[in-house]
Amino acid sequence: AQSVAQPEDQVNVAEGNPLTVKCTYSVSGNPYLFWYVQYPNRGLQFLLKYITGDNLVKGSYGFEAEFNKSQTSFHLKKPSALVSDSALYFCAVRERSGGYNKLIFGAGTRLAVHP
Amino acid sequence: DTGVSQDPRHKITKRGQNVTFRCDPISEHNRLYWYRQTLGQGPEFLTYFQNEAQLEKSRLLSDRFSAERPKGSFSTLEIQRTEQGDSAMYLCASSLPEGGVEKLFFGSGTQLSVL
Q1: Is the CB of B43 less than 8 angstroms away from the CB of A102?
Q2: What radius of gyration, in Å, describes the C-alpha atoms of chain B?
Q3: Tens-place pLDDT, residues B5-63
Q4: Dihedral sign for Cα atoms in the order B55, B58, B62, B66
Q5: How distant is the Cα of A66 from the closest Cα of chain B, in angstroms?
């Protein structure tokens, strides 16, 4: 069965410092991977996706993610964190069958950026 | 507002009552999904519609749950004889295939509390 794991419940970072939110996956075959962000009282918002091609994927709000097949990881990164980046971040993998976005989400990582 | 709308935002009900939630997707989106999110967890897939056809139901959806999407526009999710374990955030998402792996647009969710 396909799954993703987010090993950190919370990540704390100072404003202006680089941030990394970790995600590892377990799939058979090539994965379709996603990052979504959830702000309080709002729905999940798409940040970026990896389907194929370049291992470094650029997304919204200055975020990027690096796909590493040998380590089965898809870590989310940003060179310089903002206080407004504080939110709940979810990594997800798409089920291979069906051809639609049946996503399997990780448990989420809360990012806290301190001034 | 051209996003995904969900109504109500909050629902408090007593165990054994029936509840119905509504989702209005982005108008041109032909794919609609329902997910459920409990505290401290990532969203879990419940069901998927392509236009008016319900193409997949998760095993999480017991016989007490039913979803419809008449005319391929808005969707409703009904829970009959609610149980305390049904308490969760119910999220709706829509998408439009773009010739690849599309991103989901989520609504803000309906928070259900079963007393």
Answers
A1: no
A2: 14
A3: 999 999 999 999 999 999 999 998 999 999 999 998 999 999 999 999 999 999 888 89
A4: negative
A5: 18
- Asked if the bond preceding B8 is cis, omega within 30° of 0, the reply is yes
CB contact under 8 A, B48 and A51: no
Which tokens hold the place of B35? 């997910």
For residue A78 the two structure tokens come to: 């940003």
Rg from Cα positions in chain A:
14
Q: Which amino acid is at A60?
A: S
Backbone dihedral angles phi then psi of residue A109, each to the nearest 5 degrees: -130, 125
Assess contact for B35 and A92: CB atoms under 8 A: no
Rounded distance, CA B35 to CA B57, Å? 11
Start-to-end CA distance of chain B, whole Å, equals 33
Say which amino acid occupies A97. S
- Beta carbons of B31 and B94 less than 8 angstroms apart: yes
Largest Cα span, chain A: 45
Q: State the DSSP code for B84.
A: G
Longest C-alpha distance within chain B, in Å? Answer: 45
Q: Assess contact for B60 and A102: CB atoms under 8 A.
A: no
Q: Do B45 and A102 touch (CB under 8 A)?
A: yes
SS3 A60: helix
Note if the bond before A18 is cis, omega within 30 degrees: no
Do the Cβ atoms of B31 and B101 come closer than 8 Å? no
Alpha carbon distance B81, B89 (integer Å): 17
Per the CB < 8 A criterion, the answer to whether B98 and B104 are in contact is no
- What are the pLDDT digits (tens) for A69-90? 999 999 999 999 999 999 999 9
